[in-house]
Design brief:
Layout: H1 2-28, H2 34-39, H3 46-55, H4 62-74, H5 87-122, H6 127-141, H7 144-158, H8 172-201, H9 205-212, H10 217-246, H11 249-254, H12 260-269, H13 273-301
Helix pairs in contact: 1-13, 5-6, 5-8, 5-10, 6-8, 7-8, 8-10, 9-10, 10-13, 12-13
Length: 308
């Protein structure tokens, strides 16, 4: 297992380098001059402009700028935004809020999606199964921003059950409704994945053998059916964690959450490559680690899988 983890970590190095290079190149090609955007309407003197370009290595070729940035990443020095604030402070402020929101969303979609999907799969073709299939299709068809504004109006404005906006502390109560909104689409996919996998495994030979041996229904469902049905669901949840962190821009905008989405959007508008690339690089690392954890969970879910 240790060798497998080491091999997977080594495989992540070229992925990390390629992803950061591609991200840096895309940000580099964004139209506009960041120094002019920083100056605003008041023009800078040639001496000040040259000093700023030298400070942020904007007078260097593209690959030289990338190597300077890569050196800073490897030494945990994310540089300074053009506004003068350290990017590390922006990361420390925004990422804990978004990670908390994404983890809550994954927990909600995982628990409710697996429970409802299991019941639907065990009752395939019955009323509950048909209801869940129709409901999941409706959720998938409705855009997230529509669900967000509707939930904000009903639960926040009309009924007063939940706060309509999130403060700077981003408490559990304030993030509960945004987490439901953020995880609503993935909940539908988890439900359908679990339902289809459970329904397929119910007719498997090992399930019929376990039933013929006289095992209790609960043990057959939990140990044999559910455990083997979780592999595609775990794969989706692991990949979805990184996707939720990166895709929380809409939800954070609706509920005014001071997280990664709002900060990243403002940095793109200001044409700040250090901030944009640093945030996206952290997202890449989170996504890679989430996939590593998913690979390791395969061995716990399926005893037939062995890593040499």
């Amino acid at each position: 297992m240790a060798w497998y983890v080491l091999r997977r970590l080594l495989q992540m190095i070229p992925v990390f380098l390629g992803a950061t290079l591609l991200i840096y190149a895309m940000v580099f090609l964004i139209p506009g001059d960041p120094i002019e955007a920083l100056a605003g309407e008041k023009p800078l003197t040639p001496a000040v402009e040259a000093q700023l370009r030298a400070r942020y290595h904007l007078d260097e070729p593209f690959f030289t700028q990338y190597l300077f940035y890569l050196k800073g990443i490897l030494t945990f020095d994310f540089g300074t935004a053009y506004s003068g604030r350290p990017v590390r402070d922006e990361l420390a402020r925004a990422f804990p809020i978004t990670i908390k929101l994404a983890v809550m969303a994954v927990f909600i979609e995982g628990v409710f999606g697996i429970v409802f999907g299991l019941i639907a799969g065990l009752r395939k073709g019955k009323l509950f199964d048909s209801t869940m299939l129709v409901a999941s299709l409706v959720i998938i068809a409705v855009p997230v921003f529509v669900v967000g504004y509707l939930a904000q109006f009903l639960f926040g404005v009309k009924w007063g059950i939940a706060p309509t906006t999130v403060g700077g502390n981003a408490s559990f109560t304030e993030l509960l409704l945004p987490a439901f909104v953020l995880g609503s689409l993935s909940f539908a996919y988890v439900l359908r994945l679990t339902r289809n996998s459970v329904a397929e495994n119910m007719s498997a030979d090992y399930v019929r053998t376990a039933t013929a041996k006289g095992l209790r229904r609960r043990r057959v469902v939990t140990v044999h059916i559910l455990r083997n049905s979780m592999i595609p669901v775990v794969t989706f949840l692991g990949a979805d964690l990184g996707a939720l962190i990166g895709g929380a821009i809409v939800t954070e905008g609706i509920f005014n959450i001071p997280g990664v989405g709002g900060t990243l959007y403002q940095a793109i508008q200001r044409v700040e490559p250090p901030t944009v690339v640093s945030f996206v690089t952290v997202l890449v690392v989170i996504f890679l680690l989430a996939n590593l954890i998913v690979d390791l969970l395969y061995a716990a879910l399926d005893p037939r899988i062995r890593y040499a």
